[in-house]
Design goal:
The protein is mostly helical. It is built from three helices and five strands, in the order E-E-E-H-H-E-E-H. A hairpin with a 2-residue loop joins strand 4 and strand 5. The structure holds zinc ion.
Length: about 150
């Protein structure tokens, strides 16, 4: 049962977070929230293949991947160009903003929906809320560290 506006003419993908099957994707957007777990998903139209579910990614996973890549980039810049420790600390603070906001958003949504995925393990119910609360707390701690870093 696919609508003509569906972005998935061959195979219905599931939410990258909870696996909930997606019925409809508006044609004019690349970003939408899962109806079940409320996590934002991003539709990568390029360069991955057009019709596979591989191109549907959780926005929070993308944020984490970006954080990882930028951290490697920052450390490499520090090592190669002899960046000052002060500039390194500033750069690191900005990276903390990415990971902090991702963790805080995941935590808030986890508390709201009672669903959590940490690593490959998916949880629901009270256990998930404990993990979500932990993520929210660590996200807020990262944002606090960011504020400290910006005052350096
Ligand atoms: Zn979902």
């Amino acid at each position: 049962m696919l609508s003509p506006a569906s972005a998935f003419p061959y195979r219905r993908p599931g939410c990258p977070y909870c696996g909930h099957l997606i019925d409809h994707w508006p044609r004019d957007t690349n970003l939408q929230s899962c109806q079940l777990c409320l996590r934002p998903m991003v539709l990568l139209r390029w360069p991955t293949d057009w019709n596979g579910p591989k191109r549907l990614r959780g926005l929070l996973d993308v944020g984490f991947a970006l954080y990882g890549l930028l951290t490697i980039g920052l450390v490499a810049t520090f090592v190669v160009t002899g960046l000052s420790p002060h500039a390194f600390a500033k750069g690191f603070s900005v990276l903390l903003f990415i990971v902090g906001s991702v963790l805080a958003a995941d935590g808030v949504l986890g508390l709201r929906t009672g669903m959590d995925k940490t690593g490959k393990r998916f949880r629901s119910g009270p256990g998930a809320r404990v993990f979500a609360g932990g993520k929210l707390a660590s996200g807020l701690a990262a944002i606090l560290l960011l504020c400290v870093g910006l005052t350096l």
